[in-house]
Design goal:
The structure is a single chain. By secondary structure, the protein is mostly helical. The chain folds into 4 domains: 71 residues, Orthogonal Bundle (434 Repressor (Amino-terminal Domain)), CATH 1.10.260.40; 116 residues, no CATH class; 119 residues, Serine Threonine Protein Phosphatase 5, Tetratricopeptide repeat (Alpha Horseshoe), CATH 1.25.40; 75 residues, no CATH class. It has 22 helices and no strands. Helix 10 runs antiparallel to helix 11 and helix 10 runs parallel beside helix 12.
C-alpha cells in the first residue's frame, strides 16, 4: 500500500479491511449508504472533496495523508497496525474457556508474571510503545494461563496486563479494542475492591475516549467512593484521588464546570496527604499530577488563558521531574493544544518539541499528538523547527 499509483478507492478498502469493518458498518459510521462505499472502493465514485477525505480518514482512524499516498512513514504505520492486530488476536483468544491444549501449556509462575507486568508498565511509562506492542501478546497469554491455573494468585497479574494493554490502546487511538481490555480487567477484578478500583482508572479513560463521559463519571466516582469508605492509607488515597481526577476530566468534557472543580478539589486534598514521587498502582498520583489535571480540565472547559497560566506554574514544581516521561509528554501535548487555542504557534511548537525530547513515541505514535502537530505547522507563524519535525513524520502543512 505504499505506492502513489494505488487508486484511492483501493486504499479505502484496504484500511477498512484492516479495521475489521464491513462495508455496511463503515457506511453507517460515515452516514452514507453501503452502495456509496462500494462505488468508492471500486473507483466508480471519485473522492474529490478534502472534507470527505478527512471524514473517511477519521472513521478509519488514520491520517488522511495515508489515503493520498503521501505519508512518509508507511512502514512505521504498518508496523504499528500489525502490532495492534496481534494484540487483538490475543484478546480474542478463548483457548482457556474452551479448554484447548494450548491453554494448559507452560503456565508461568506468579513471580515471573509479576516481573513481566512490571516490565510492561515500565515500558509504558517511558513511552516505549513499539516495544510494548511486541511484549503484550505473550504477556496476556501467560497471564491468562496463570489465572486459569490459580485464579487467586493470578488475578492481579491478569488485571494489570489488561490495564496496561488498555492504556496503550487508548494512546494509539484504538478505543474499541481498549474498551475490550478494560472490560476484561473489570471482570477479572470483581470481588476485590482495590483491584476493581485500579481497573476502573483505565475504564474511565476508555469511556472518555469513546465519548461516553457520563458513564465515565459514574463509574469512576462509584469506585472512588467505594474504597474511600475505609480508612485511607496512601495506596487507597492514590487510587481514590486518581479516580476523582478521571471523574473531573469526564465532567469537564461534559461542560460541567461545577462538578469538575469539586472533583479536582477533592483529589487535591488527598494528593496533599500522599505527596509527590509515589506510583501506587501505576497512578503517579500526587499534588503535581492534580495540578496537571487542573490544566486539562481548564482546556476542556474552554478557559484557555487559565489553563496556560496553570500549566506554566505546574511544570515549575519539583514534582514535575518525578513524573514518568509518558505523563509529562502527554501533558505537554495538552499544553500545545491550549497554546493553539490562543493562536500562539511559537509556544505550541516549544512544548511539542519538548514532548518529543521527553518521550518521542508520544508525539510520533499518538493520533491526538499528530492532530496538535498538524494544527501547529499549519499556522503561518509556525517555527521552522516544528515544521521540520512534522515533515520528518509525514505530517504536512497543506
Amino acid at each position: 500500500m505504499e505506492s502513489d499509483a494505488v487508486p484511492i478507492g483501493r486504499r479505502v478498502a484496504y484500511w477498512r479491511a484492516r479495521r475489521r469493518m464491513s462495508q455496511q458498518v463503515f457506511a453507517d459510521r460515515l452516514g452514507k449508504s453501503k452502495s456509496w462505499v462500494d462505488k468508492v472502493e471500486r473507483g466508480a465514485r471519485a473522492l474529490d472533496k478534502v472534507s470527505t477525505l478527512r471524514e473517511i480518514a477519521a472513521a478509519l482512524r488514520i491520517d488522511h495523508a495515508l489515503l493520498l499516498g503521501q505519508d512518509s512513514r508507511p512502514a512505521d504505520a504498518a508496523t504499528r497496525i500489525e502490532g495492534v492486530e496481534v494484540i487483538r488476536a490475543a484478546l480474542s483468544a478463548y483457548d482457556i474457556a474452551l479448554d484447548r491444549p494450548a491453554a494448559r501449556r507452560d503456565v508461568p509462575d506468579a513471580a515471573r508474571l509479576a516481573r513481566g507486568v512490571a516490565h510492561a508498565w515500565t515500558s509504558f511509562q517511558h513511552a516505549r510503545y513499539p516495544a510494548l506492542l511486541g511484549l503484550l501478546p505473550e504477556l496476556l497469554a501467560g497471564a491468562q494461563r496463570g489465572h486459569a491455573h490459580d485464579p487467586k494468585a493470578g488475578r492481579v497479574s491478569l488485571v494489570e496486563a489488561y490495564r496496561v494493554t488498555a492504556s496503550l490502546l487508548v494512546k494509539l487511538g484504538e478505543t474499541e479494542l481498549a474498551w475490550l481490555a478494560a472490560d476484561r480487567a473489570m471482570a477479572v477484578a470483581t470481588g476485590d475492591p482495590m483491584v476493581v478500583a485500579a481497573a476502573t482508572v483505565q475504564l474511565g479513560q476508555v469511556l472518555r475516549a469513546a465519548g461516553r463521559t457520563r458513564e465515565a463519571s459514574t463509574a469512576t466516582l462509584a469506585a472512588a467512593y467505594r474504597i474511600g469508605q475505609a480508612d485511607l492509607d496512601v495506596v487507597r488515597m492514590s487510587l481514590c484521588g486518581t479516580l476523582l481526577v478521571q471523574a473531573a476530566l469526564a465532567a469537564a468534557r461534559q461542560g460541567d464546570e461545577r462538578a469538575a472543580a469539586a472533583r479536582v478539589d477533592e483529589a487535591a486534598d488527598l494528593a496533599a496527604e500522599v505527596g509527590d514521587g509515589n506510583d501506587h498502582y501505576r497512578t503517579s498520583f500526587g499534588p503535581t499530577a492534580v495540578a496537571l489535571a487542573r490544566v486539562t480540565v481548564a482546556i476542556e472547559l474552554g478557559t484557555t488563558d487559565e489553563a496556560i497560566a496553570q500549566h506554566e506554574k505546574a511544570v515549575g514544581r519539583d514534582g514535575w521531574r518525578w513524573l514518568p516521561p509518558e505523563h509529562r509528554a502527554a501533558h505537554l501535548i495538552d499544553a500545545g493544544r491550549a497554546y493553539l487555542q490562543v493562536a500562539d504557534p511559537v509556544n505550541a511548537a516549544r512544548v511539542l518539541l519538548e514532548a518529543d525530547r521527553t518521550a518521542p513515541a508520544e508525539v510520533r505514535h499518538r493520533p491526538a499528538a499528530r492532530t496538535v502537530l498538524t494544527g501547529t505547522v499549519r499556522h503561518p507563524d509556525a517555527p521552522a523547527t516544528i515544521v521540520a519535525l512534522a515533515a520528518s513524520l509525514g505530517v504536512g502543512s497543506a
